[in-house]
Structures are given as structure tokens and as C-alpha cells.
Amino acid sequence: MQIPKQALLLRIFIGEDDKFGGSPLYEAIVLKARESHLAGATVLRGPMGFGASSRLHTTKILRLSEDLPLVIEIVDSEDKINAFLPTLDGMMTSGLITLEKVQVLQYGAKATS
Fold it and tell me: Per its UniProt record, what InterPro entries does this chain match (predicted)?
């Protein structure tokens, strides 16, 4: 699979406790991205954050319900990312989605000579 040099970065900000169809939302998004043949997805867990509600989410030991922030990053061609957005919209009830143009320098293993 090749990604064009000029691509889009889809960044999705959600909470660890967010669900879709009884499963964690982040898992559902990554599996749907894979099913949609996107180049790849990475889930990053943040130790602290807040969103629209301004409620602080943290890893502090005394908190019972952490609901830590998660960021899912997906890079692919503009066409493939744009085709995935309606699917993503149907999965999310809250959160933040951003897009930015990126330049892909390498994808996969470099060819050896």
C-alpha cells in the first residue's frame, strides 16, 4: 500500500470510557479504519486532559473513574480520509475531530540495496 506524499492526518480526541455498540469507541474506530483499508491507526493515551466540559481527567492515584483522554491518529490520502469521515461521524456522540495536511516522508520499510 502506498500513501501519497501529500496526505491528511485525521486526529480524533475521545475519552477512554466512550463506547460504541458496547465496545470501547477507540477499538471500534481502529477496527473500522482497518476494515476501510486505511493505511494505519494509532491510539495514544494521555495522562491528563480536559475537553468541552472542562472536567479534568487525570491518572492521579485517588481517582476512581479516570476516563483518560485518548487520541487516535490516522494518516492516508485526502480521498480515503474524506470517505471515512461519515462513518466516523456515525460512531461518535462527543469528542473532537481535526484534520491537517501532512507530508509523508516514509511509510513502511525502506528498500534495502
Answer: N-reg_PII-like_a/b, N-reg_PII/ATP_PRibTrfase_C, UPF0166
Residue whose C-alpha cell reads 476516563 in the numeric block: 67
* Sign of the torsion formed by the C-alpha atoms of 41, 45, 49 and 53: positive
Give per-10-residue mean pLDDT for the chain (113 aa): 87 95 97 97 87 72 71 97 98 96 88 65
Strands 23-24 and 96-103: unpaired
Q: What pTM was estimated for this model as a whole? A: 0.86
| Sheet with 6-15, edge to edge strand ranges | 41-45, 69-76, 6-15, 96-103
Q: Is 16 exposed, middle or buried (0-12, 13-18, 19+ CB in 10 A)?
A: middle
